[in-house]
Specification:
Layout (H helix, E strand, L loop, with lengths): L31 H6 L7 H9 L3 E9 L6 H13 L6 E5 L7 H4 L8 E3 L2 E3 L1 E4 L2 E5 L15 H14 L5 E7 L6 H10 L6 E6 L3 H16 L4 E6 L4 E2 L6 E2 L8 H9 L3 E4 L4 H9 L3 H4 L4 H8 L11 E7 L6 E7 L1 H7 L3
Parallel strand pairs: 1-7, 1-8, 2-6, 2-7, 8-9, 9-12
Antiparallel strand pairs: 3-4, 5-6, 10-11, 13-14
């Protein structure tokens, strides 16, 4: 993959490209002479270090969204909890939303400190088999602002991947900021040699969100990041009393379902609005354990999560409440097949 610097012009061919420093897009770029000389093509030694460090991590899944506020971090946290509900599965959640780290709050570990050992930084453990790492653990206060330019953000992501003592993991889930920024480029670059499984993209039903998701999908195509599928969040609200379903965010252009049909991508499912999810996030509690009788929690708990690789497949199972027209979802990823076919 061509490495595109954070301050590059719009059509930068990338520092590792044969056209680096030679195209019309390179005119006026402060790095043009460096790229043209070939010096910028030298691989970052951290990539190989990260590859070695993550050799004991079987599957790496990136969670993306085109727009903020669509529930990406909430989905990442619930996915981590669902995976970790199997005591034999080792899971870690990495929060690389440098400027807006919400994972510590959602996971109930806000205010925890990162400890350093001889083997690197020790992540914070929510459960015996569920670890979390976030820049939020390095801030003096949750209200402290992180005002960093791209290179410093990239350096922190590199440090998370290279210096954290993850140990042996079945799944590393990477929660990213919205959009297609430096953080996304860094994650893909540093994980490329370590065999990243792919991305799950979160959206809401309305076109204003889908428009940004299409850009996110295009980004994945450009950097050769496989798209596992799309999840439509906040997809309808079922009244707990009358059981009627209302579309709070109407899918005016057909929602994620039509978009996935047009782009040939799997629609992994639709997650309904449930106020209890937000309440549990504010309290740092697992929605799956606090409201185990809810349709969404049952769907997560019954699922076997994994990701699509060359030798595996995605199964999508829809559960329908017989008293409601709303369709709840399960992303049924073949965990057994993934572990059997995985090549570390």
């Amino acid at each position: 993959m061509a490495d595109v610097p954070s301050d590059a012009p719009q059509h930068c061919p990338g520092t590792s490209s044969e056209q680096a420093g030679k195209t019309s897009a390179c005119q006026g770029c402060p790095n043009q002479s460096l790229c043209a000389s070939g010096a910028a093509k030298a691989p970052d030694p951290a990539i190989e270090e990260i590859k070695v460090k993550l050799a004991t991590v079987k599957h790496k899944i990136v969670v993306l969204s085109g727009k903020g506020g669509v529930g990406k971090s909430t989905f990442s946290a619930n996915l981590a909890h669902a995976l970790a509900s199997d005591a034999s599965t080792e899971v870690a959640l990495l929060d690389v939303d440098i400027c807006g780290p919400s994972v510590p709050k959602i996971m109930g570990v806000e205010g925890e400190q990162v400890h350093q050992s001889g083997s690197g930084w020790s992540p914070v453990y929510v459960e015996d088999n569920l670890a979390v790492m976030s820049i939020g653990f390095l801030l003096g206060s949750p209200d402290d602002a992180v005002i960093w330019r791209g290179p410093k953000k990239n350096g922190m992501i590199k440090q998370f991947l290279r210096d954290v003592d993850w140990g042996e993991l079945d799944y590393l889930i990477v929660d990213t900021p919205p959009g297609t920024s430096d953080e996304h480029l860094s994650v893909v670059q540093y994980l490329s040699a370590a065999r990243i499984d792919g991305a799950v993209i979160i959206t809401t039903p309305q076109e204003v969100s889908l428009q940004d998701v299409r850009k996110e999908i295009r980004f994945c195509q450009k950097v050769n990041l496989p798209v596992i599928g799309v999840v439509e969040n906040m997809s309808g609200f079922e009244c707990p009393k009358c059981k009627n379903t209302s579309q709070i965010f109407p899918p005016t252009t057909g929602g994620a379902e039509r978009m996935c049909e047009e782009l040939g991508l799997p629609l992994l499912g639709k997650v309904p609005l449930d106020p209890r999810i937000g309440k549990n996030c504010d309290e740092g509690k697992s929605f799956l354990s606090e409201v185990p009788d809810s349709a969404a929690a049952l769907a997560y708990q019954d699922a076997h999560f994994a990701s699509r690789t060359v030798n595996t497949r995605i199964n999508v199972l829809f559960i329908t409440d017989q008293n409601s027209v709303h369709v709840y979802f399960i992303i049924l990823w073949s965990l057994q097949d993934l572990l059997k076919n995985n090549v570390a």
